[in-house]
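Final report, closing paragraph on structural work. Over the funding period we assembled a curated collection of sequence-structure pairs, and we close with a single example.
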Amino acid sequence: MRLINIGFGNMIAAERIVAVVSPDSAPVKRLVQEARDAHRIVDATQGRRTRAVVVTDSDHVVLSAIQPETVASRAGSREAAVPTEEKEI
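Its predicted structure, as stored:
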């Protein structure tokens, strides 16, 4: 499993990311509000302005204070990802 830094020490599993979008459009604002109402939102902005909205395969929505391009580049590169060892059961 690879973890992607989405800002301020917060990490997300790279395999779970479906989309990384800007929060400016009306459909994305609606998506965020619906996730908030359904308690499926994770606010990782640390009180700062939301600049990226990450949608996961479990329909959770993660808010990040870093640019969508930065999140996408970190998801695509090996340097920004933090590899974790998987334990055998």
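The chain has a mean pLDDT of 91. Strands lie at 2-7, 10-13, 17-21, 41-43, 52-56, 61-64, 81-83. We thank the funder for supporting this effort.
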